[in-house]
Amino acid sequence: MAEKPSVLIIGGLGYIGRFLALHIHKNNLASEVRIVDKVLPQLAWLAPEFEEACAGPKFMQADASREQSLQRIFDRSNGKQWDYVFNCGGETRYSQEDEVYKLRSLELSLAVGREAAKRGVKCFIELSTGMVYKPDSAPSKEQDKLKPWSKIAVFKLQAEEELAKIPGLNLAIVRLSHVYGPYASQWVATALCMARVYQALGSEMKWLWTKNLCTNTVHIHDVTRALWQVAEWYSAGKAKWDAAKMGPTPTFNVVDKGRTTQGIMADLIGDVFGIKTGFQGTIISNFAKIHLHDVVEDVNDELLGPWAGLLEDAGITKPGPLTPFMEAELLKDTDLSMDGSRLEELLGFEYEKPQINKELLQEVIESYKRMKWWP
User: Helix (H, G, I), strand (E, B), or coil: what is residue 253?
Assistant: First the structure.
């Protein structure tokens, strides 16, 4: 029997990195795993089930964007090279200065990419985002027009393009829709926190724009399965990949089959919280187009005080990563609409959580309660 692959996960304590480590651990997929992150496990809000997969001897604290850290990160005690390197690192917060994304995302990707090429790593997987596509309600395929609409996406696209130029790098790119699941602290988490405040206030929760705005999603469980399947497929010879038609770099969208929109989310959240949900009229939405930052500031002012009050009433003195604070960048009138058929057709991938539903959202809230994050 062939030896199982050895795996290096950069940014391994981030949301996707920790779940990928857990997937590998639970299914005993690797001969050796190293988790690299600049944050210590004790400070990463890790749930108990991640302890064994992410901490202890598997963990190495290092900043992979720094040239001087690379040798320590990549060297193994047996003198061999890593088979798979997953780059789950980079800045995930919105609305930061360009320099932050340049240093923490772009330069990180290029540093680990160059090192992986130098060492002949069998497969290097770069995580990217569906926000690199030109916004369109029609689902974007991997070769469709690119026009990044968030700062994260601008620098992710630069990383994709620069990595593709590195000689000898065995590169695959995975572009993700909105990732949700237990312990999620972004996007879906913001909406759930906002809904909890509106529930407490007895008010209606109203979205900007329209119910048809695409906000495509994918469950973390399927993300980790897809990442592993892409690495296996790549190192086994990239079956059915046609570089002449599909481009030199294997690129895959990972997005569920539910075609999630704001309308779907509004209905689900209304159902979960027993609140009225709806959409702002054209007048307010048109005003928001011109004065988005003012509108977002007003909403944040309205929600942050009551949220703090809810935490206090629930006796939560050490708040976790949850907040109803809304980022203007995420509230743009732009569709996140992706076509994930390539992954299914080429790799035979099947989604086990094909669409977001009430049960899966309740599962997210239950995970927050276990961590004592939820008021």
Answer: strand
Task: Work out the pLDDT band at 1, boundaries 50, 70, 90.
Answer: low
Burial environment of residue 211 by CB neighbours within 10 A (0 to 12, 13 to 18, 19 or more): middle
| Range list of β-strands (E), 135-222 | 171-176, 178-180, 205-207, 217-219
Q: How high is the pLDDT of residue 91? A: 66
- Cα 344 to Cα 226: distance, rounded to the nearest angstrom: 10
Give the separation between CA 364 and CA 184, rounded to whole angstroms: 7
Whether the predicted pLDDT of 83 surpasses 80 = yes
- Whether 281 has a pLDDT exceeding 80, the answer reads no
**Could you give phi then psi for residue 185, rounded to 5 degrees?**
-120, 5
Burial code of 42-60, b = ≥16 C-beta within 10 A, e = fewer? eebbbeeebeebbbeebbe
Mean pLDDT of the chain: 92
**CA 359 → CA 194, 266, 272, 330, distances in Å?**
19, 15, 9, 25
The encoded tokens of residue 2 equal 């062939």
pLDDT tens-digit series, residues 312-359: 999 998 878 999 988 877 777 889 999 999 999 999 999 999 999 999
| Cα dihedral 281/292/204/188 (nearest 10) | 120
Give strand pairing partners of 218: 179
Nearest in space to 219 (alpha carbons), one of 363, 27, 59: 363
Cα–Cα distance, 373 to 183 (Å, whole number): 9
d(CA 265, CA 323): 18
Phi, psi of 271 (to 5 degrees): -70, -45
CA 179, chain centre distance (Å): 5
Taking only the tens place, the pLDDT of each residue in 17-32 is: 999 999 999 999 999 9
HSE-CB of 279 using CA atoms within 13 angstroms: 18
Per-residue H/E/C for 229-243: HHHHHHHCCCCCCCH
Nearest to 266 by CA among 194, 326, 338, 323: 194
Of 260, 253, 261, nearest in space to 349 by CA: 253
Task: Determine contact, residues 57/89, Cβ cutoff 8 Å.
Answer: no
Q: 92 pLDDT exceeds 70? A: no
Q: What's the pLDDT score for residue 148?
A: 83
